[in-house]
Specification:
Strand content: 5-15%
Number of domains: 1
Helix content: 55-70%
Oligomer: single chain
Number of helices: 5
Strand order of the largest sheet: 1-2
Structural class: mainly alpha
Largest sheet: 2 strands, parallel
Order of helices and strands: HHEHEHH
Number of strands: 2
C-alpha cells in the first residue's frame, strides 16, 4: 500500500503491479468479490496483457472472485488466452444507439 500512497503524493500514476497487489490483499479477506473493468480496448497492448495476467492470478488465488470486463472485438481474443472458460456475449448496438452515443459525447 505504501507504493500507491507514495505515487499519489508524488503526483504520478501508481504502477499496475502495486494496484494489483493491493487488490489481492483486499480480496483475500472477502468471501466473494466482483471485479468490473470497462473499456479494455482503450488500454495499451502491453498494459492490457499485464492486467489480464494479474486478473488471471487473482482468479486462481481467489476462485470465488468473478471478473466482468468489456472491450472491443480484439480484446476478446486476448481475454480467451488468459481465461479459457470466459463467456463473451456479443454486443451489437443499432445504428440509432451509436448515433445517440456520439451526440452525447459531443
Amino acid at each position: 500500500m505504501g507504493a500507491i500512497l507514495k505515487a499519489f503524493q508524488e503526483g504520478r500514476r501508481p504502477l499496475l503491479a502495486d494496484l494489483m497487489r493491493m487488490l489481492k490483499i483486499a480480496i483475500a479477506s472477502l468471501p466473494q468479490a466482483f471485479i468490473c473493468i470497462d473499456a479494455l480496448d482503450e488500454w495499451l497492448p502491453k498494459d492490457l496483457l499485464e492486467l489480464l495476467g494479474s486478473l488471471r492470478d487473482i482468479a486462481r488465488e481467489s476462485p470465488r472472485t468473478r471478473i466482468f470486463i468489456t472491450g472491443g472485438p480484439y480484446v476478446g481474443e486476448a481475454v480467451r488466452k488468459y481465461f479459457t472458460k470466459a463467456v463473451a456475449p456479443p454486443i451489437n448496438p443499432t445504428r440509432a444507439q451509436i448515433k445517440k452515443k456520439i451526440r452525447k459525447k459531443w
